[in-house]
Each structure stands twice: as structure tokens, then as C-alpha cells.
Design goal:
Elements lengths: L1 E4 L3 E5 L2 H4 L20 E11 L3 E9 L5 E8 L3 E2 L4 H7 L14 E4 L2 E2 L3 E8 L2 E2 L1 H7 L7 H8 L4 H9 L3 E4 L4 E4 L2 E12 L2 E9 L17 H5 L4 H9 L4 E8 L11 E9 L6 E4 L5 E2 L4 E9 L5 E8 L4
Parallel strand pairs: 1-5, 3-16
Antiparallel strand pairs: 2-15, 3-4, 4-14, 5-13, 6-13, 7-8, 7-14, 9-10, 9-13, 11-12, 15-20, 16-19, 17-20, 18-19
Length: 318
């Protein structure tokens, strides 16, 4: 059975630490290797990116003479568990019925909902530490509201060992342990690609965050190149400094190389949500199709870079 990967995207907090060295940090899918298909290609892909929702619609075309059964994998971005804003937004939001499905991932194939299985992972500095935590009896999704109950059965020696290995932090002031690893879920399902076309629709709720630290990043330096931030965008941003905050998306496009041939027709729509919000992304030759939406299209598209979008949204009033 073949195994394939579909790209995922997530919002990233524009924190000071992420911008201090002039590099944008984006949690994106990756790290998995999939066998290339010589018979299944992407006939078309439509990608919609906004502050509140990500939607992607694929039409796959199989030129094989018989149905091919493959495992599709959709890795969600890693999320830290150390009580940061990501933790609150991803796992403790009332709109999320299952904390493990922290971005409300939904998939349909040919219009019908598909049951997926969730594969959990814990990663520390890029290393998979899932089995180490399981052996110690620690849940991979260690939320603050469940932390005391989860840690109670562990012996002091086990806790000290996990602290020594950098997996846990111990806070002397309040006597609590916090997780230092990142949590990730991969959604998998078995897909039969019959000869001809198969339509796959995916949608999920991106994780949001903001920061008021600009660090002159978008006036000069790496951000100008990465987001094709033209002079008009930088001038508008300069006028609104302090009243808007950045929210960044990293979307993996290069996984398309695992399928047969280029993407036949590709359409990108970026929606900034409100006319007063700002947005910048490459390619620079996108066109405005409404007062909030921008479109870019291509044919026989072979992505050589991943998608990077930055929104500047109005700060919430106290």
C-alpha cells in the first residue's frame, strides 16, 4: 500500500523571540517521507487561506487501470504545551469538541465525510519522544487542567528523570511540572483512488495569535523578500504601527512533488477578513478580486517553495 502526505497550514504567533534574529518561525507539516506515485496526479487544487478558516479542494486523477488503495496522511502543525497562548487557543477553546483535534480538521471525499484515525506524536527539538513518555506513563497531550491528575501516579524518580532529560520543567514556587515538548496529531485514512477523478475536500480552523513587536522586520530585511511586502504595504503598516498585530501562516506546497507530474490547475485565494486588515504574500502578481480577497492562479504548477502569508489584523479593544 502506498502512503502519501497532504500539506497542512497553521497560524503562528509573531512573538519577539521569533523575530529578534530576523527569521520568521512557522510550524508547518514535514519530516515524513512518502513514496512517489507514478500514476496519481493532482488535476487541480484550490486553496483558501484566511484568519478564521483554511480550505483546500483537490481533484486527483489516476491513470492506473484499477483502483489503487493508499494511505493518506495529513500532519497538523506542532503545538507547544508549556502554557503559552497556543495551548489556550488550540486546546482550551470551547469551539473545539475534541482537544486532540485542536484545529477542527474535517475531510470529505467525493462529497462524503471520511472517518480518520489520529496518530499522536510528542516532539522535543525535532526528536520524537512519544515512546519515552508512554513508557513513563505520561499522556502526550498534557493539558494544564489535567496535569495534576496525570502526574500524580508518577514516582519522584520518574519525574526527576524526565526533568533531567529536558522533557519536563519543575517550578519550585508553585510545585508544578510543565511539558517542554510539542504535541502533534497526524490524521490518516485509507483512500481508494479509482481510475479517473477523485475529489478530496479539507477544512480546518487555524490557530491564531498576535504580537505587537514589529522589530522593523517588515520595513527592511527578510520579511520584505519572504512576503513580497511592497512599498505600499510597508507604508500602510508604518501608519498603523501599534494598532495592528501580525498573524503568519506557513503552508506546505512542496509535498505536491510526491504525486505524478505538476498540479494541472492551481488557484490560491487569500482573504484578509476585513477591508481594514493588511496582508502580504508571494507571488507578488496576485490580483484583487474583492475588497478583502486576492487571487493567484497557475497551470502546470510545480511548487518550488512553500506558502508564506502574513496578516496584520486590528488589535482587540480592551
Amino acid at each position: 500500500m502506498l502512503r502519501f502526505c497532504i500539506a497542512a497550514a497553521a497560524f503562528v504567533i509573531g512573538a519577539s523571540a521569533a523575530l529578534a534574529n530576523g527569521a520568521t518561525s512557522e510550524r508547518r507539516a514535514g519530516g515524513l517521507v512518502f513514496k512517489k506515485s507514478d500514476t496519481i496526479g493532482i488535476a487541480s487544487e484550490e486553496l483558501y487561506l484566511s484568519v478564521n478558516e483554511v480550505r483546500v479542494s483537490y481533484i486527483y486523477h489516476s491513470k492506473a487501470p484499477a483502483t489503487q488503495n493508499v494511505t493518506i496522511s495529513f500532519p497538523m502543525p506542532e503545538v507547544p504545551l508549556d502554557d503559552g497562548p497556543d495551548t489556550e487557543d488550540a486546546f482550551m477553546n470551547d469551539k473545539v469538541p475534541d482537544p486532540k483535534n485542536y484545529m477542527n480538521f474535517v475531510v470529505r471525499v467525493d462529497g462524503k465525510p471520511v472517518a480518520t484515525r489520529m496518530v499522536e506524536r510528542a516532539l522535543l527539538d525535532g526528536k520524537d519522544v512519544s515512546e519515552r513518555l508512554r513508557r513513563a506513563g505520561v499522556p502526550l497531550l498534557l493539558l494544564s487542567k489535567e496535569r495534576e491528575t496525570a502526574m500524580a501516579p508518577l514516582s519522584d524518580d520518574v519525574k526527576k528523570a524526565l526533568v533531567a532529560e529536558g522533557l519536563l520543567d519543575f517550578h519550585d514556587v508553585n510545585g508544578i511540572y510543565t511539558a517542554k515538548w510539542n504535541y502533534q496529531v497526524l490524521f490518516e485514512w485509507e483512500q481508494g483512488f479509482r481510475p479517473g477523478q477523485t475529489k478530496v475536500d479539507i477544512r480546518y480552523r487555524p490557530i491564531g495569535g498576535d504580537s505587537e513587536d514589529y522589530g522593523d522586520y517588515f520595513e527592511k530585511g527578510e520579511g520584505v523578500r519572504k512576503y513580497c511586502a511592497d512599498p505600499a504595504f510597508r507604508a500602510a503598516l508604518g501608519k498603523r504601527r501599534g494598532s495592528v498585530s501580525p498573524v503568519r501562516i506557513g503552508y506546505v506546497l512542496k509535498t505536491a512533488r510526491f504525486w505524478n507530474g505538476p498540479i494541472g490547475k492551481f488557484r490560491l485565494v487569500v482573504d484578509k477578513g476585513k477591508p481594514t486588515n493588511l496582508v502580504a504574500f508571494c507571488p507578488a502578481d496576485s490580483r484583487k478580486i474583492s475588497n478583502t480577497q486576492f487571487e493567484w492562479t497557475a497551470t502546470n504548477f510545480s511548487p518550488d517553495r512553500d506558502m508564506a502569508v502574513v496578516f496584520f489584523v486590528a488589535n482587540e479593544q480592551p
